[in-house]
Structures are given as structure tokens and as C-alpha cells.
Amino acid sequence: MGGRLDERGRIQLLEGIFGAHGDAALPAGVELAIGDDAAVLDATRAGRRLVWTIDEQVEHTHFRRDLVGWRDVGWRSFMAAASDIAAMGAEPWCALSALVLSCDVDDEAFEQIARGQADAASAVGTRIVGGNLARGTVVSVATSLLGSCDRPVARAGARPGDTLWLAGAVGLAAAGLRGLDGGRGDDVRLRRAVEAWRRPRARIAEGRAMGPVASAAIDVSDGLARDVGHIAQASGVQIVLDARAIGEDAALGEAAAAVGVDPIDLALRGGEDYALVVTGARPIDGFRRIGEVRSGAGLVLRADGVERSIEPAGFDHFA
Amino acid sequence: MGGRLDERGRIQLLEGIFGAHGDAALPAGVELAIGDDAAVLDATRAGRRLVWTIDEQVEHTHFRRDLVGWRDVGWRSFMAAASDIAAMGAEPWCALSALVLSCDVDDEAFEQIARGQADAASAVGTRIVGGNLARGTVVSVATSLLGSCDRPVARAGARPGDTLWLAGAVGLAAAGLRGLDGGRGDDVRLRRAVEAWRRPRARIAEGRAMGPVASAAIDVSDGLARDVGHIAQASGVQIVLDARAIGEDAALGEAAAAVGVDPIDLALRGGEDYALVVTGARPIDGFRRIGEVRSGAGLVLRADGVERSIEPAGFDHFA
């Protein structure tokens, strides 16, 4: 077990990693960063609309220390929040982070969490500009992100006749978690799946590409069925998922075979991929077609020419 | 043990309590509230500067179920974040909340937490417009708040010759917690102290009053010594605390006697009062004088005409 800085020492470490007040690398418009009661932003430097989210990853629920390193914990928690910004068609502006650390998190682990957060922030072109530190009995990482755009894309807005488009893989992360949990993280067929679970990427570029043209959008955090179900319900439409198109992902097929689960089932029920699924009339750069929107309600899965209703179930924290 | 709604049911309950999309009572400029990937805000409706904070209250660290009701847990966690906005001289605009709930939190407890948050938001003139729900092994409430102002007041900026001003009580909340912890929550001498700990109030009006004129400001969450120490350090000045002025609070004296602790010690070391302490040249409505700023470094306590250096120690999460 390593050292334990006091609160001031830990905040100074964070200033070194995230950038302190006056750091030239801070996002435009950030006037006051880590080290005061609140961050100060120049509102006139934002776009017409601010998009604002909060997400939290909790030990035992979202990660286990035996399956993931601390730097991955920081990365994954940041990307989960950034994915919400992508799903609105926005660009990240800046972020706050609230860390809860248990007594057994030493300075090395603490630094790795922060470096993972900073890596992820940098990968999507932003920075952490403030936050909070507290002690607790389990580790959690809450991330609040502000993004900016001219035209936010909500879940409501899909219209009959629209096509359903997907950017990124679905089901891979769930296969990776199953493989890790079964002690098979070294299986070469699961390499991409394990990477998808440990190091997901918020689809910021794809989000910006769909922003001006999509009719509805969501990120796939809880499985395709559940999240597409949110669009169907919010938009008052029926959405048909095309099993063949969903199953065309070779990496998903290989990973599904390795863990012995049907790939379509993984895609429909598996979470934490942070793919983007959107509806719209025309093709969008970086997206592929996986279904269509029509009048009605609920979800339909089309497989081998046969259509059947499916429940929009997926991961539910409280079911 | 009561019922357990699923995630959708819990989100619908929150929409009922906090207000959903299209609710006329939402703050001006909130275009999309609970129920999408992120809240959407009209940036042109904010003031010149945005002030942004996150705070988190964690079971066993910030509250214990045997000392506080769920509605108080919601209230206290919201006020802790709102106090950061007050300390910048800003006015709350809108808030997000990330709740972590353990399995034994039933729907009644869940609703009480949310109602406490909504009560507190309403008391400071704002609303919760989105958030996150997750399961965990202990309960925590993270609150991110955006505020707006023209002139944010930071911790740096105090100048020799300034006076030190206080709005609100200090030490009372710590006395209340001691009383509760000792099973003396019914002691009439502790009534105000227990109320101060259970139902703190962010000093929004006082924050707005000091905003245009204060040279530095902070909220007292970790004890007067530690938080005034932050101003001294950030501003590069020495601050003298006047024990007589600090001890003039009759409620503090009564509560201190009831718990058998020196009132000045309670004020210096006790946290969670959320008073505001600011520096500035002239008196400010709602503030009373408790010391002065001069050249030098660190903190000095003046008592009975004698000055002595004191450590800026108070509550430290990791010491």
C-alpha cells in the first residue's frame, strides 16, 4: 500500500494533471478552473445552446477492481458522460468531476484514476476544470460535462419513413465483460471486445456529423433494445431492427462465439458500448443502416424475413 | 420495506417532483429537462458568466441514517452545492443530480430524497433539470449546479486593509451533529444547532449582496479556520480572526455549552454551516465584521488582546 496525500495534496496533484487556473491549454472561455468554490465560464464563448449531463460510475456496479485498472476506471467514467454529449450532437466544452475514494485508494491509484480521466478528456478535446473530493466506503466517479451546439438532437423526433443508423459496435463490450468475468481476458478472439469494455470511446465526431440532419438520437449504454426503445417511445413510433444488419459486425460474431452467446442477443441486451443510434432520412458519414422507423409503437426484430415484437429490455439498475 | 419501482418508474417519479420537459416552472432558458441524454440550455439566457460546481454527499461520510431523515439528506446535499454558487456571488440557474441508491432504499425513501432536493432547489429559486440514477452499496447524492453572474468573486483577491465579514452562523452545525451523535437531539439548547446541521441554507441573497463589492469570498463548509485559510493562502495575505466577534453569536454559545465544547473551537474547526465569509473594504448588508486582512501570511486569532498564529486546519477528507 502506497502513500496517502491529504486533501490539499490531492487537489494539487489534480491541478498538475488536469491543468490549473491560467493554464493555456484550458478550453476557450474557462476563466477560473480547479481551486475555487466553482469554475467560472464566459457564457458568450459557448455556442447558442448548452448541452449538460451528469453520469456516475460506482464500484461493484460499473466496475470491479479485479477486472479493470484504475486508469481504465477514470477513462470509462469520463467517456460514459461524454457519450451523452455526443448523443445530443454536441461538442464537449468542459467537465467537472466528483471523486469518492475509499481509504484503501493510495496515491498511485488516485493518480491513475485522474490520469485516465485526463486521457479521456483529451481524447474528446476537452478538460476537467473543477470538481469535488470526498471519502467513502466504495469508489465512485461522477462526471458532469457541458457541451455546446447549435441544434441539439433529442430522443423524440423520429418519423415514420426514417432509417435507423448506427455508429460504432454494439454487444462487443458485453462480450468483453463476460470474457473477463470468466477469466478469459487473454482469449485472442475477445481482444477487441475486452478493449471495447475497458476503453470505450464517445462518438463525438459521429455525433457532430449527425447533429445537423438526424431526427432523433441516443447513445447505446444499456443495450440496443432498451435504448432504441427509448427513441420509439419518446417519438411515438415503431422501430424495426434488422438482425442481419446488426449481425454483420465480424468482431461481434467472433467475440460472441468465444463467450458462447448469440451475437444478436449480445447486441440487443449488452450495455456500455456507447455506440450512437440515430434516425434520419439520409445516410450520415460514419453510420450504417440497421433498421427503419414506421407508424405504430414498440420494437420489432426482423430476422430471416420474419418479424416479431421484442421487449425494449436491457440493463435496468433497479429491475 | 416498501416497493421498488424500476428505473423508468423512478425517472417518472422524478419528473413528477422536479418538473418534466415543457413544465412552465422550469428556469428561463431550460429547453429540455429530465428524460433525454442531456439537458439543453439556451446559452443566451445566462448572464455574462457561468459559475459551475459539483458536490457529493456520501452515506457514512456526510450522513448516517440514524441521525437524519431522507428528506434532510436530499436537502443538505443540494444546499452544499448551492452554497458554492453563493460563495461566487452568483445566482443559481439550474441543477443536475446523480443519485446512487442501495437495494434497501425503497420507493418511499427515494421519493423523500428527491422531495428534499426539490425543496432545497425551490428555496434558492432553481430546479433540477436532469441527472442520473445508479445502484450502489451505499447511498450518495451528487449535485451539479450552474449559476450566473456578472462579477464572480474568487478566493484570491483579499487585500491588506480589507475587513473580514461573515454572513450566517459558524460552529452551530458541528454542535448540532455532536448533540445528535450523543443522543441529545431533543435538548432544547441544541434546537437551533440541530436545525443548522439538518437543514443548512445556502446564503444566496447574501452572496448576491457581496458579489459587486467583495474582494474575495468562500463558503464555510470545513470550519472557519480552514476556509478563511484558503482565502489567506490564495490571496497571499494574513488574516486576523477576532475571537470576541466570532463568539458574539448567542445560539453558538448556548449550543457549545450544551455539548461542552469551546464555542470558538467549534467555529474554527466545525464544518457544514455554509456561512459566507468575504473580504472587502466596506460593510455589506447581512454580514458582520469578524476580523481583518493585513500583509503577511497565515491565520492569526486575536483573543483578549493577545494574538497567536493558528493552523488553518479543519475538516480534511483525507488527513
Give a verbal description of the structure.
2 copies of one chain form a homodimer. The longest helix of chain A has 18 residues, at 70-87. With 319 residues, chain A is an alpha+beta fold. In chain A, strand 4, helix 3 and strand 5 form a beta-alpha-beta unit. The model of chain A has no long low-confidence stretch (mean pLDDT 93). Helices cover 33% and strands 27% of the residues of chain A. At the A-B interface, helix 1, strand 2, strand 3, helix 2 and strand 4 of A face helix 1, strand 2, strand 3, helix 2 and strand 4 of B.
What is the typical, i.e. mean, pLDDT of chain A? 93
Radius of gyration of chain A: 20 Å
Assess the beta-strand content of chain A as a share of residues.
25-35%
Task: Give the overall silhouette of chain A.
Answer: globular
Distance between the termini of chain A: 38 Å
The helix-strand sequence of chain A is HEEEHEHEEEHHHEHEHHHEEEE
Using DSSP, what is the number of strands of chain A?
13
Major sheet attributes of chain A: 7 strands, mixed
> What is the share of helical residues of chain A?
25-40%
Low-pLDDT sequence parts of chain A: none
The count of helical stretches of chain A stands at 10
Strand order of the largest sheet of chain A: 8-10-7-11-9-12-13
Q: Which oligomeric state applies?
A: homodimer
Which class best fits the helix and strand makeup of chain A?
A: alpha+beta
Q: Which chains have the largest interface?
A: A-B, 73 and 73 residues
